Amino acid sequence: MNIKFKQETFRDDFSFQNSPEAIRRFPFPFHEDKYMYSVNMEPHVPGSKGHAYETLIDVDEHYISEMADRAKVLKEDPLRCQALPHMMQAQWDTLELLMEQMAEGYPDLFTLTRQADQWHWINRPLNIDQKFTFGDVTTLPCEPMEYITRQSQGDFCIVDQRDNNLWMDAGIATTQADWSLDFDIGMNFMEWHGPVPLAHQMGVFERALKFLLNLQQGKPVRRLNWTMTINPRLDTSPENYHKWGSDRMTVTPENVGQKVHLRCELQSLWRLPRSNAILFVIRCYLLKMGELVEVPKWGRRFPRVLKSLPPELVDYKGLTRFRDMTVEWLSKYDDGKPTSPGIYPD
Amino acid sequence: MSINTDMAVRVTAITQVAESVKRFRFERLDGKPFPVFPGGAHVVVAWKDGGMIRRNPYSLMSAPGDTSAYEISVLRVEKSRGGSAFLHEKVKLGDTLSLSQPVDLFPIDQRGRKHIFMAGGIGITPFMAMMDQLSKLNQNFELHYAVRTRTHGAYWQELTERYGAHRVKIYCDAEKLFIPTEPLLGAQPLGTHLYVCGPGGMIDGVLGTARKLGWPEENLHSERFLAPPPGAPFTVKLTRSNKTVEVAEHQSILEAVEAAGVDAPFMCRGGACGQCETNVTACDGEILHHDHYLPQADKASGKKIMICVSRIKGKEITLDL
Question: Which of B223, B248, B280 is the last residue of a domain?
Answer without folding.
Answer: B223
